[in-house]
Specification:
Largest sheet: 3 strands, antiparallel
Structural class: mainly alpha
Distance between the termini: 32 Å
Number of helices: 18
Radius of gyration: 23 Å
Order of helices and strands: HHEEEHHHHHHHHHHHHHHHH
Length: 442
Amino acid sequence: MDETRDTQRSLDLALRVGEMLLSNGAGAADVTATMSSVCQFLGLRNVLVDVTFTTLTLSYDTGVDQPVITMRRQVTHRESDYADLTAVDHLVSDLINEEITREEAAAQILQLSSSGHPTPRWAVTVSWGVTATGVALLLGGDWVVMLLAAVSGAALEVLQRRLERLRLPFFYSQVAGGLLATTLAVGVAATPVPINPSLVVTASIVMLLAGLGFIGAFQDALTGFYVTANARILEVMFATVGIIVGVSGGLGLGRWMGVDVLVDPDLSADLSNLASVIIGSAITAAGFAFSAYSPTRILAPIALIGGLGGGISFALVEAQVHRAAAAGIAAFVIGFVSYTVAGRGRVPPLVIVVSSIVPLLPGLLIYTSLTLLAAENFTGIVAMITAIAVALMLTAGVILGEYVAQPLQREARRLERRLSGPRLVGPIRIRHARRSRRSKES
């Protein structure tokens, strides 16, 4: 009985670690590998790890004549919280390096899951406005557009937070966000202020656009988690359709008020010059990182890497390189640089990679394609194919960059290949930790 209880405690710790990683944006492969590492370190050799979009399952085969111990946890809440992600990454590293015990790790993971955010809400609200300002600059907007985008982005954060407290399904919060952004643009269009409503709406809803979900879906697909990938893609489609419904409702309200506003979702030709793209990409990346509670010490490197990636992609597109190929090359550079910077900044590479590729995400392309298809314009199919190609190249580029950048030892590399592909979060040096333990004991 004591042995069974001990096994259950080890499995429970691995499940809680996996839950924190999956709910905060880690890919299914990284979650599986980290949970497997924890179980192996705690002495559980025959553990089957099953990760889907909403459920984590661990099954431990104790022997032929013994019943299988199965434990499961359901992931119901999702939020990009890179402070928690970093804390869990450090916790698992400390556990595997024997700096903390299993009981101490379990107490820490419970504290992490129950504690709130140290960052004030007003600061997160401001960061949404800053991110929208960066996108407006990236798209070639003037100071009026950037100001309106900042106000709209901050208002969207407040609205999303209030709706989340009401526990409304995610689709309805997307509809409300699209409606708010479009209504603000319609209101300003009714004044003599000369603006491009398309820029205002697009820059405002960038935080709602579901490009990150597409990236996560292709990451899971490339690493063999096809069920989870399909679930992420379906979530992307529902989220984007919600935005389109909200934007359409705002335009209809404007027509009812006598203000006819045309919102063109295709702004690909409106990108500004290289300097504005670099600065806008840097602001967007850093603003998103702060809104996701990234450690402040890593914000400046994220801004530099985001600006570098945005500048590379823009320069290649200007040189007549296909947009998907340009995004892939920029993502490779981001993935390659992020590994070294993450080690120096003591954060998982995922924190830097995701924040830095936000300016390159195909969320606007997804929005464009679905909007065109809703209007029975079948050129939207081309936009959707382009969006898929960009998302795939971003994911493949980041993973390839990690492959090239990781200078792993032979044993760690062998374990890494067995458990997953290149890791964006979670330690891999379990065997090194065991060798260190044996040397200390001797």
